[in-house]
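Protocol step 4 of 6.
Sequence for F-box DNA helicase 1 (Ameiurus melas) entered exactly as in the expression construct, tag removed. Do not edit the line below.
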Amino acid sequence: METASKGKAKRRHLSAAECSGLTQSLTGSPAITQPFTVSLHNKDPNKGLQPRSPTKRRRRVADGRQQGLITGFFASAGVLSSSPQKGKNVKTEPGPNSHIAVKEEVEERHVVMDFMEGITEEMFKDDEEFETGKFSVKKEDNERDWTGAGCSSWASPPPGSSSINGHTEKEEEQDEEYDVQSLPDAHYGLLGLNRTLLEPQGHIQDLPEEVLSVIFAQLPADDLYRHVSLVCQRWRGIVMESQFLPWKKLYYRCEKQEEEAVKEVKALLEDNGIVRTDDLCVLNMVRYMSQFKHSKRVNEADVLRCVKGHRLYAQAEACIKHRLPDMETIDGGPNPWSAMALILILADGVRDILDLVARLRTSGCLLTLDRISEFLWAMATLLLAMRNTNITITNRWHYNIFYVLHLMENAPPPLSHGDGREKQIHVTHEQQQVLNHDIQRDHVVKIMAFAGTGKTTTLVKYAQQRPHLHFLYVSFNKSVAVQANRSFPSNVECRTIHSMAYKAIGHRYRNLGKLCSNLKPFTVAWVLPEGRGGFVNAKVVTQTINNFCSSTDECIGPQHVPDRYKNTNGREECPTESKRKDFAYDAQNIWKKMTELKPTKEAVHHITHDGYLKLWQLQKPVLKNYDVIFIDEAQDCTPVIMDILLSQSCGKILVGDPHQQIYTFRGAVNALHTVPHTHLYYLTQSFRFGCEIAYVGATILNVCKKVKKILVGGRQDGTVRGEDNETLDTIKQARTQVGGTVAILCRCNVTVFGEAVRLTDINPNCKIHIVGGVENFGLKQILDIWILMQPEQSRRNEGLQIKDPFIRSFCKEKLGGYAGLKKYATHTEDHELVGKLSLVEKYNKRIPELVDRLYSRAQSKPNCADYILGTVHKSKGLEFDTVVVTDDFIKVPCSRHNLHRMNINPGIRQADADEWNLLYVAVTRAKRTLYLTKSVSNILTLAGEYFLRFELTCTLLNKDQYRRCSTRECPNLITVESPLSMHKLPVRYMDSTEEGGVLCATCVEQRVGPVSFLLSPPETIKFMHYTEELPELPINIAMLLALL
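Step 5 output, structure tokens:
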């Protein structure tokens, strides 16, 4: 409380008895229990009862000089367990348990400042414990060393410690009068106060290196190397110190293919027998992890007690006792580090690893969170290296650990309550890197964003943080631009590239009635010179014009002629140089007449939307008044679009997913790969789905496209094995359900039509929504093709009329009717028309009834429909709670071990990248539930994921002492001789089910190689009967193998 002396206010701390008395008084109680609700003026006698906020003002000594920082007198050698307090004149009395009671004496005299006051040698002990740049004091040690009495926050020195000059100086502090303030803000005034402190006096450089290392340990390795280490020599020294996060840094260096790091890990694997030629490589890795270097302060017995609570501990213990009996024990239990390594391997998924991390974190047995992550980084580094050296293990082990580490690094900060502010949207480290980038006019920034990673949200926040800049957001699709206009702030103008070209040039052709959607070979064929006509030549000329419109060239030339095309016999043909010149000449004549501003009735001379966009590009447009251009879906932009935008004298930010490029047939190029950049960022964490769906998407990219970046999700639940039997049965039986939640996604329109027929056949009242609208699906054209298929006499008798002018033209005898239309579709390689013809031939007489039914059952809004149907092309950018992937995508015929045994090349590398992109886009539309196909499961096996899980043998066998292997025709029995076994989880597809069951060790060895030796010794497994499984192959593959 405060006492008056010579007009000055003096402070002293109260004894326990005085505090007790104050809490009973009317004036004292509120001031102590609710200090910030009491408003006291300067002359109030109880003013001193309120706590004061530090002013951060440095004291001045008599000669006017400012007080120096403590670091100016003494270097920091360790992390202090508590801040040194001001000294007091105390008397000590020995009490029970050697605790010290404090008696205070108050003296009124001027202060004598002592910078060593409160500093004891205990504070500088245990420097050798900073193995990873961190230090922690045990709770019981802290309580024993710094126990005080009463309610004073000042503590007496520990017994046996030495004080300066052999005693503790009495101190008085002389304060100036100032207004009592509550805590100024959430930063405790470190950033400055409005009245008493205009500028903060502290700086992050004032922190000791041990504290800085604790802060830096929370950052991703990418930030440590690319940003923190470049700030100054001191920070670089902390980051590069060998004992600071060694495994985390080693993983990052290996991922970047740093030569020294790769050699270091390779040598480590070879020295410890973790090589492909060693059957026990997985066990050797577990044995190596038993030597994990940890702080001397970590008690291994405490770690083991913590790990014992995990549900997989019993399996890990059984495996160690059976397969590593010579390993040193801890308090009668297994080595805790090996047990933890096995738990990471045995984990069913991300949840098991998160549970392990939570247990370690709660118990505090590893002292700090970064020591937990270091163990995980060690395992991730070894598993990644094992995969890179072609050791046959599943990529799921590494993926689960990496996933958890990513979540740990991107965990949202704790929510603050009662601050009156709106809830902040948490951004990941990757998003924050983008937001921190201050773009300049000469910058070309690329943002590689996986599916659902919040690229639009990132752009919105980027624009919001820079209200002084004027942005242009450019998209290809009008609906996307409209939606973006609702999301972006007012300093962003949202347009499509074609709308800008239309405003500049296109409207002129619209006014002349000389505008069409696309150029068709059918109209081109009638204007070609004699001798160079026909639908095949018309197709080549049409493609030549389209290629020119997509390019940056100023005139049409032979280079725009396609390199290959199918001739009238259906065989691929490469044009000669003379033919190239002829095709280019014909294309030039048509293009010249298309661009003339003269009205014409000849449809072939009407300009297309891409045509007037090309004319605009040739004029070298200048977009003024924009500081930055956002280019969305950059992977699908044509060269002509990129030329227009990249030529502008402002900053450019290209955003997109290179693995969602599915429009190369329109001339799109992947600008995210071809355009040079000044800065590159990645967004890899999806907010759409959880770990199971993310794993499927990441594995498709890794196996089929060799993508190194890893797609991860959030903490949401999700399923991919058809566990929800009720929903699957509902879909199969087309029963009514909650609208807008289930989507059936297909590769092509033919399958969409087939699924719509299937659903409405089973349930005539089933309501469907076709993505893109039923009016744009082409049902009227399908009906017209069916009418064309009917004999001319029948059409007249029944009054059937063809409404589509293009199809109606084939009624003429010289075009050959239905057969002529079919020939035209083949010669021009019109895949959409070929699909419609196949539908008509498949359903034939049912077509009129089916067209009417689909029109009647179609809903305009998806939330009003029981099921949503669509192609991947139309569904791009959308998301659904449940996604069913149909079986018309690219296929892998069987699982990995059968491919190897039968010497079948799945043809993954030879397949068009667009096909894998389509499959990736399909699976990443799901938010909660994904129903796979057998082919997608086969792709997962190429990464080692057979949905095999570990279990105690006694649990699997239940009451049966013996059980046969679940593999067909395998006679091997499962016995309790091996305490651990593996069983396959059941997987349900739309058209079939893979039953689960326990597998014998030799069947496990066929699928996942050395993992089987966690179950039994190699000599035992190799002595067992080896069963060659007979897989169910697609009919075409099976017939080919039979012939061979």
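Step 6, annotate. Confidence is low (pLDDT under 50) at residues 1-11, 53-67, 69-181, 417-422.
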